[in-house]
Design a protein that fits this description.
single chain; mainly alpha
Length: about 260
């Protein structure tokens, strides 16, 4: 006699969907802004090629320093790929080091390694200031793009002012980087250039990010308050109920 097939003991809650529950269990949270920028390890990774360049240049000369910095950037990129870390910071960091090394090679000077970053800081400062002047502050635009928050903040003047302040803070950071590092470049202080590049990198970005967070929280709080005070649009059922009430209260004319 054939035995009956074993029953599936998997319990599916009433009104639930087993596949849906499984999807929820495997769903991964969206990466945070810090994770998208490379995380805390990004500070260490971005410093390694600069440190390698300065040390190798001091002991073995410019050519070895160029290859050493590029090699360390390649190693960091491979390490990020193996560890399945965000690739965007790794790729941008590699190309940044490659461009800096190429300029150092073309100029034949160790301080040329820092020239690209110096002028890039000035360009970033100009773009940030321009975005404020055209009323599209980059801090608000980028935050909205990353979080899908829309452009409602632009219609609220105080919210836009907060993002103006945050964008201006970032512009000041880039301006300070340009002024300090340009002076060190003109004074041939290669070692201090390396120190300034590291010290004025992620640490200053962290301060600027604090201003951005302040602007975001300020804007979100205002927009939430405005949304609560705005009258809700009438649905078809609301219109029908209002008309019924209106005509029910209208007195019928006497014959």
């Amino acid at each position: 006699m054939t035995e009956p097939a074993p029953r599936d003991e998997t319990h599916v809650p009433e009104g639930g969907d087993e596949k849906h529950d499984t999807d929820n269990d495997t769903e991964k949270p969206e990466p945070t802004l810090l994770e998208q920028m490379g995380g805390v390890s990004g500070l260490f990774y971005s410093s390694v090629p600069v440190i390698v360049f300065v040390l190798v240049n001091a002991f073995f000369g410019l050519t070895a320093a160029i290859w050493g910095s590029v090699g360390s950037a390649v190693a960091i990129t491979v390490l990020r790929v193996v560890r399945k870390e965000p690739l965007q910071p790794a790729i941008s960091g590699f190309f940044g080091v490659a461009i800096a090394a190429f300029i150092a090679f073309r100029t034949g000077s160790a301080k040329g390694f820092f020239l690209f970053g110096i002028w890039a800081s000035l360009a970033y400062c100009g773009v940030f200031v321009l975005s404020i002047l055209v009323r599209w502050p980059i801090a608000g635009v980028v935050w909205s793009a990353l979080n899908g928050a829309g452009q409602a903040w632009r219609k609220d003047k105080p919210s836009r002012y907060g993002y103006d302040v945050a964008t201006l803070a970032l512009a000041v950071i880039f301006a300070a980087r340009f002024v300090v590092q340009r002076w060190l470049y003109n004074s041939d202080y290669t070692g201090w250039l390396a120190f300034a590049k590291i010290a004025m990198g992620y640490p200053l970005y962290a301060l600027g990010l604090l201003v951005v967070v302040w602007a975001v929280r300020r804007s979100d709080k205002r927009l939430k308050a405005l949304a609560e005070t705005e009258p809700k649009p009438e649905t078809d059922a609301d219109v029908e109920a209002r008309l019924r009430e209106k005509y029910a209260q209208t007195p019928t004319p006497e014959a």
